[in-house]
Design goal:
- It is a single chain.
- Helices cover 48% and strands 17% of the residues.
- Strands 3-4-5 form a three-stranded mixed β-sheet. The protein has a two-stranded antiparallel ribbon with strand order 1-2.
- Helix 7 packs antiparallel against helix 8.
- It is elongated.
- The two termini are 24 Å apart.
């Protein structure tokens, strides 16, 4: 799906949302949308479904010439994943720093809470449609000439009606 940005050139909607969300995440949590999206590559698929980066807490600098001190990466995870995160802390720090491009992270703090991710939640399968519902979808989409679009809309209609 694409939207339009200045100049009329098509831009993916994901780029538009990233451009909107990234400054908010940086200000509120010290995170970038890229870090959140790349979380599975940083911690691995096994931990990515049970953890999420919450915040990067930077130490306060009292003066501008204070030496640089690395930040703390706060990771939310469920209780069962906390032990795995703790055992892999140094690897997570190394991978996060490699992703960020410098030694930004010096410590990891674990916050135990329920973590729901998109890969974890699966909706129930749609109910089978009645003959009337199938006919209704067919009537609505019958005038669409593009076969691929028509089939996609029929599947969408079946999914919506089946829920």
């Amino acid at each position: 799906m694409t939207g339009k940005w200045r100049g009329g050139n098509p831009v993916p909607v994901s780029d538009l949302t990233s451009a909107l969300l990234d400054p908010v995440l940086r200000r509120r949590a010290g995170l970038s949308i890229d870090l959140v999206q790349s979380w599975p590559e940083i911690v691995g698929d096994r931990l990515a479904v049970r953890t999420r980066p919450e915040k990067i807490a930077w130490p306060r600098r009292l003066q501008e010439d204070d030496p640089f001190q690395p930040a703390t990466l706060i990771i939310a995870c469920d209780g069962a994943a906390a032990l795995h995160v703790q055992h892999e802390t140094m690897e997570i720090i190394d991978r996060a720093n490699a992703f960020l491009g410098f030694n930004a992270i010096g410590r990891v703090r674990i916050v135990q809470k329920q973590v729901e991710t998109a890969t974890r939640r699966k909706p129930p399968p749609p109910k089978p449609l009645s003959a009337d519902q199938k006919e209704k979808i067919g009537r609505i989409t019958s005038k669409i000439e593009d076969d691929g679009l028509r089939e996609s809309l029929e599947r969408l209609g079946a999914s919506v009606l089946g829920r």
